């Protein structure tokens, strides 16, 4: 029998040695700790350091900041650029409020809209180019239902590199390969730092901090893709809901977790169909007859409801239609879609024999997740990115400012960084609870102390499969209640039987724990809001109607004395008024038959 090549044996042995669990703990202190090295986190750390160069700012990332986060390969454009001459902060705030079914505290949205143009100009100075017209002005495209906000990025693949250069220039302290597991609270409940574990060695790091900024992205590994592949997700697969979990266990309020993220994607490919990008060139979403059935391809719950209705009808499947466009136009679209955000997209179409010029691209519906970038579910924050826990901030896809996208992560990350450093300069370093650190160490290492058991990938698969079975919209009360019981059974397995044999598997075990936390929160929040809201995102078949009298509010979920509880929080009075006849604009997207 042929044996394994010697080189492979050596490589396997080296990998095992790299991932061996080491028993060590160290402690550091800083003014501001930023957790998450994707989009919002680096900008938050950079702004904090630039505002107070003498301060100690640490950026913590479980991978490597050079290529981490949802923008690791770049981005094809800004989806929500509020540029003078094209839009005003008032117009944008109105658009997002209407798109989010009115459940919106406008102050953080308006603050974003006021500040984002300055961030665009700053990114421009970093060397990130944005498309301009013949007059040298920003070439903004219309995709949204009401306004014009989309700005293409010809060299969007350079975003991460440009951002990293700025971090090094500002001498921000970067700790790669450390995964934060829990936040630490001071005796008065304020944040006091975090516990982290090295993803290569399992060494522990206790970080004391005056302020902490959570920027860990979406809960992208919540539902299971139709492929069954754990990492074949619409969102960045590294985003496993760690930030949602940490905020919850620290006592922070999380808002609107029943508002799931669901997106149109290419069938059998873990990425967006990008009608959003191709739309300005004349592409659109069509049914199997080649007919357009929605007027606007901007993401909203109601758009996804229409997509679902068409997909389920006799006119499904649904497609991205480009075959009516000129070949040169299609080539331009291919340049954008195949060379920046997901370069594998072109290879996928080539292997499948799909040419945009001759065939429509089959689309489908993504797995569910939490993400404010495309919906509104996240840690509750105000216009300064402050959570409900003193000293704790959040920005990016995990903070509940609706329809954030990449520019929102940059802008709100900047807001968080500047406010957090000011907060830190006014207080002393909080005390931490040594017993809490010891308990966390025991929780984290428990899977490593079992000789045998269930590996993390099986725990994760079962959790996410049950998310599909019991929480996927349209939602049914009885199914969600069964889901809660199944999650409780998985919790028992996770806490008593899950095994991790090396530090890499330990990281997967910690991610499985975060995913299960998010699944339980998704079920709890979905049962609490007893009405349908946000189109498909929270379509409850047994509570089909909107009920503004009872439910025109945020739902806030939090941990109280070890239990998960939900409550209502009133919508803060609007800054930008919304007229009664405007509120339903996103409900009228279906193309009407011509008389």
From TrEMBL:
An annotated Gene Ontology molecular function: flavin adenine dinucleotide binding
EC supergroup of this enzyme: oxidoreductase
Protein name: Succinate dehydrogenase flavoprotein subunit
UniProt-listed Enzyme Commission number(s): 1.3.99.1
PANTHER family noted in UniProt: BLR3196 PROTEIN (PTHR11632:SF73), SUCCINATE DEHYDROGENASE 2 FLAVOPROTEIN SUBUNIT (PTHR11632)
Pfam families assigned: FAD_binding_2, Succ_DH_flav_C
Keyword presence, Membrane: no
Cited SUPFAM superfamilies: FAD/NAD(P)-binding domain, Succinate dehydrogenase/fumarate reductase flavoprotein C-terminal domain
GO cellular component terms given for this protein: plasma membrane
Transcription listed as a keyword: no
Domain FAD-dependent oxidoreductase 2 FAD-binding: 31-400
InterPro entries: FAD-dep_OxRdtase_2_FAD-bd, FAD/NAD-bd_sf, Fum_R/Succ_DH_flav-like_C_sf, Fum_Rdtase/Succ_DH_flav-like_C, SdhA/FrdA/AprA
Listed Gene3D superfamilies: FAD/NAD(P)-binding domain
GO BP terms, alphabetized: anaerobic respiration
Keywords: Flavoprotein, Oxidoreductase
Annotated ranges, domain Fumarate reductase/succinate dehydrogenase flavoprotein-like C-terminal: 467-579
């Amino acid at each position: 029998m042929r044996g394994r090549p010697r080189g492979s044996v050596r490589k396997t042995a080296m990998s095992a040695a790299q991932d061996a669990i080491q028993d060590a703990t160290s402690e550091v202190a800083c003014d501001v700790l930023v957790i998450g090295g994707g989009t919002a986190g680096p900008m938050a750390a950079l702004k904090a350091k630039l505002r107070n160069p003498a301060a100690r700012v640490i950026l913590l990332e479980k991978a490597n900041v050079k290529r981490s986060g949802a923008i690791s390969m770049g981005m094809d454009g800004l989806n929500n650029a509020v540029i003078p001459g094209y839009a005003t902060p008032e117009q944008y705030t109105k658009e997002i409020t209407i798109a989010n079914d009115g459940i919106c505290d406008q102050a953080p949205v308006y603050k974003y809209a006021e500040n984002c143009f300055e961030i665009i100009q700053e990114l421009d100075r970093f060397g990130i180019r944005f498309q301009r017209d013949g007059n040298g002005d920003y070439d903004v495209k219309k995709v949204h239902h009401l306004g014009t906000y989309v700005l293409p990025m010809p060299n969007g693949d350079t975003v991460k590199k440009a951002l990293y250069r700025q971090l090094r220039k500002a001498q921000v302290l970067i700790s790669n390969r450390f995964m934060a597991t829990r936040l630490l609270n001071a005796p008065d409940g304020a944040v006091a730092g975090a516990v982290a574990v090295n993803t290569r060695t399992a060494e522990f790091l206790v970080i004391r901090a005056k302020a902490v900024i959570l920027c860990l992205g979406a809960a992208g590994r919540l539902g299971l893709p139709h492929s069954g592949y754990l990492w074949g997700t619409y969102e960045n697969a590294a985003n496993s809901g760690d930030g949602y979990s940490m905020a919850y266990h620290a006592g922070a309020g999380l808002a609107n977790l029943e508002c799931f993220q669901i997106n149109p994607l290419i069938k059998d490919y873990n990425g967006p169909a990008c009608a959003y990008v191709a739309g300005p060139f004349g592409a659109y979403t069509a049914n199997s007859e080649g007919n357009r059935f929605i007027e606007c391809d901007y993401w909203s719950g109601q758009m996804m409801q229409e997509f679902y209705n068409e997909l389920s009808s006799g006119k499904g499947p649904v497609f991205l239609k480009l075959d009516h466009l000129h070949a040169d136009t299609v080539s331009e679209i291919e340049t954008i879609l195949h060379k920046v955000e997901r370069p594998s997209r072109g290879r996928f179409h080539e292997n499948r024999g799909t040419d945009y010029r001759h065939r429509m691209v089959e689309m489908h519906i993504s797995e569910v997740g939490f993400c404010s970038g495309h919906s509104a579910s996240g840690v509750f924050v105000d216009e300064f990115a402050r959570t409900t826990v003193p000293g704790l901030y959040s920005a990016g896809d995990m903070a509940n400012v609706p329809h954030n996208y990449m520019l929102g992560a940059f802008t709100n990350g900047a807001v968080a960084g500047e406010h957090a450093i000011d907060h830190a300069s006014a207080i002393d370093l909080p005390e931490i609870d040594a017993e809490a650190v010891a308990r966390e160490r025991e929780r984290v290492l428990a899977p490593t102390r079992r000789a045998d058991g269930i590996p993390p990938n099986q725990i994760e698969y079962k959790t996410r499969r049950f998310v599909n079975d019991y929480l996927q919209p349209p939602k049914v009360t009885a199914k969600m209640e069964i889901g809660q019981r199944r999650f409780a059974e998985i919790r028992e397995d996770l806490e008593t039987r899950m095994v991790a044999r090396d530090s890499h598997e330990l990281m997967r075990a910690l991610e499985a724990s975060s995913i299960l936390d998010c699944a339980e929160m998704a079920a709890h929040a979905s049962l609490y809001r007893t009405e349908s809201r946000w189109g498909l995102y929270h379509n409850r078949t047994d509570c089909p109607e909107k009920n503004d009298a009872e439910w025109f509010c945020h739902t806030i979920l939090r941990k109280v004395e070890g239990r998960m509880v939900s409550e209502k929080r009133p919508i803060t009075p609007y800054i930008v008024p919304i007229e009664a006849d405007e509120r339903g604009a996103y409900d009228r997207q279906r193309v009407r038959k011509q008389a």
